[in-house]
Amino acid sequence: MEWYQQYGAVYRTGGCFGQDFLSVADPKALQYIFHSSGYRFPKTRDARRIMNAFVGQGVATVEGNVHQRQRKILGPAFAASQLRLFLNVFQASALKLTEKTYEYVGKGKEVNVLQWTSKTALDIIGITSFRYKFNSLDDGQTELMAALNNIFGESQMWPTTWELLFSALWRILPEWVLLLLERLPSRDVVRLKRFRDVASKVSRHIFEQQLNEVTNDANPSEKDVVNVLAMSYLADDAKKKMSDLEIDSQLATFIIAGHDTTANTMAWLLYELSRHPEVQAKVREEIAIAKYKAPGALTSNDYDAMAWLNAVIKEVLRYHPLAYGLFRKAAQDDFLPLAEPIITSDGQFCSEIPISKGQVIFASVYTYNRLPSVWGDDAAEWNPRRFLEDRGIKQESLGVYANLMTFSAGIRGCIGWRFTIMELQSVVTELLSNFEFKHSEGSTGAAARPLRASF
Length: 455
Known about the structure:
Heme binds at residue 414. This protein is of the alpha+beta class and 455 residues long. The chain has one domain: CATH 1.10.630.10. It has 21 helices and ten strands. A hairpin with a 5-residue loop joins strand 5 (334-343) and strand 6 (349-355). Helix 3 packs across helix 13 and helix 13 crosses helix 15 (244-275). The longest helix has 32 residues, at 244-275. The two termini are 34 Å apart. Residues 444-455 have low confidence and may be disordered.
């Protein structure tokens, strides 16, 4: 944010080996890159290689017509009508998490929030997407859970000089050289390869186990992920068919996406509520009223009607995006329009920026999500009230949810964003109905991470 304050929402930086990056947080420029331009700004080669390393050629990795085909096939599994069928699974898993938390608290143990939200998220993605019970909340550490734990780990938080150089080399070296480099035992390569191997083994076992059951399903109206993939596997039409490799890749993609996003967001949400007890009290009161009025279990409409609950979810997604930025590369010479004109180094006033084919762009999710021009003068603060007030700020139509860039945007917007929101609503509601979250004693400043909380 310091560079944004000094240089504006678009600025150029240098990288290793003379590489050149254009950092972009301007809402109009992002709208152009992610919406108006279709596939003219694909992922960079290194970004695709990283994605391919741990999830293969899934919907989060591929580009162009292949991405279009895969997304169209998978679409029914993430329709709002289908997701509402999963609400009881979200609620049952949230209840199980609550029971486990009571068990730990009753024994005077400290609860590792991220560990348990991770287990909950994995159990939910297993049942809803694959009709498979991982039983992570019951059985503790499974092989898949071990591979998921800290998948990026210290190599992302505290990279060595070699790891920084290795990442930079991915952008410029020939493919055959990269294949040799990938054999070197860096921490990233070891972790990603382990997850890919375990996820492939587990997902293939699940898919083969469920294929016969799914194809003979007495209720074909249910279009969960494994059902959709089974239909695609058996399809004769090339436009509706996926290969074995594509199916394995989709399964790995949804395991990592459905697990990582929700678990980390949940941990940050509980952390922020522990820092803002007055907000936590308002959400808890709202939940109590909704439960009192509901004749039975809460419905998706009940969750959507809770203004404070949803404001908190939006604010934590804004303030703590899982991905701080997205790398893209210009496929042709182009111009980026700007919502906030800039003054160039030679003193010119610009409302659009010319870019050359091959220009690497870093779309800064973190900076966009904290722009005062979009979110108000208090954008640097965690304040869910911004989503409850009409601040009269005109915004570009950008993100798929609450105009945030957290789930990306446009044709590459996260296909499972509704799934994540419904899961967050269900789990937060159950936890706040039973517990009060407070800081662990002694956790202050930078040392306070969303890993542990006392109740």
